[in-house]
Structure formats: structure tokens, C-alpha cells
Design brief:
- This protein is of the alpha+beta class and 225 residues long.
- 45% of the residues lie in helices and 15% in strands.
- It has 9 helices and 5 strands, in the order H-H-H-H-H-H-H-E-E-H-E-H-E-E.
- A 5-stranded mixed beta sheet has the order 2-1-3-4-5, with helices on both faces.
- It starts with 10 loop residues before the first helix and ends in an 8-residue tail after the last strand.
Length: 225
Amino acid sequence: MSIAHWPADDRPREKLLLRGAAALSDAELLAIFLRTGMAGVSAVALAQRLLLHFGSISALFAASESEFVRHPGLGLAKYAQLMAVKEMAQRALAESLARRDALSSPADVRSYLRLAIGSRDIEVFVALFLNAQHQVIAMEEVFRGTLTETRVYPREIVRRALFHNAAALIVAHNHPSGRAEASMADRALTQTLKSALELVDIALLDHFVVTAAHATSLAEEGGLA
């Protein structure tokens, strides 16, 4: 059967093959993942319902197992597939950062951080440890907090940087509130951490405040001057 005669549920796949994945909407991409809808509801319509409920693909990735399977047409198998897709995306971005200068690929850094921590429901503080070529050696969740705050100890970050023999760091934390705006405390911590790392000749390149939708760079805002 030629693609022109594919069933309606397969049309997003036809569009992808003809025009490329970038030409598809979020709902169409999700419909390809779902493969089928349910009685009286096409895969695209089901995808639209899910995006309307969760708000975005990022929020869907962050859904718990119980939240996901509660929706008609979904189940544990689909949830496992979704988590596999998310993990593959994270690993692909991590591999890209490991091969390239992180400063030359800020979009990849932002995408990786948004996917890794942007949708977490508690605050976490992570560090990307870089070599002299600014390639990622390792990423660690250094501290974990509550819904509204994380207590960060610069001494521990310096210790982990020395352990990894890092030449530079990029740090980030998420805001579960959904607002990617740096607070005065965030800015003060950035300066304290920068000074602590300078004592052992390690550069702090950036501090990102991350949500599912955005990643704000304090370096771009002059917060590392």
C-alpha cells in the first residue's frame, strides 16, 4: 500500500517522511509515538487531549506513572516507552555535550538541563564538570531540597570538582514554581561559588535557573561579572 492510502492515524508519519520531523506539530509527533487512538478517537485527537491536559511535552515527560496511566488509551507499556524516549533524548544530548565545547553549544546545554531537571517537583542543584576544552566530564545532582528551596554548600561542590579534576563548571537548579527568574539568593550563591572555585583555579562558567520551558543564564545577565 502506498503512503497516500495510509489510514488517517498514519498521516503524521506520512507528513514526517515527506517533509521531515520538524514540520510536525507537538500533537502530530505525539500521535506517532502513540501509534493508535481508541474507539472514536484518532491518535492525533488523543495526543491533543493529552497536551491540553498536561500543558506541554515537557510536562508529559515529567508525569508520574499513576498520572499517565489514568488517561483512557494509555497504559504501563506506553509509559515505559515514553520514559525510554525521554532517557534516549537525555543521553543523546549528554553525548553531544561530551564531544563539544559546552560554551559553543548553549542551546544543547539548555535543552539538556530542561529535560533533566526542568520538570522536577522539588528543587535540585546540579553541576556539569568540564575539562579544559569545556567538554562535559560528568554531571551530578549535588543537592536536593524541597518544593521551594535547596541548601547548597560551596565546599562540597569544590570537593566534587577536584574529585573529577575539572577545569570549569556549569551549575544549575530548577524552580518548581515554573518561573525561571534568578532570586537575590541565587545571585549571591553564584558569587560565593565563583570565589570558592577561583581559590583552586577552577572557573565557574554559568549558573542556570531552569524550568520545563526555560533556562535562564546568569552569565548572560551579568551575574558572573
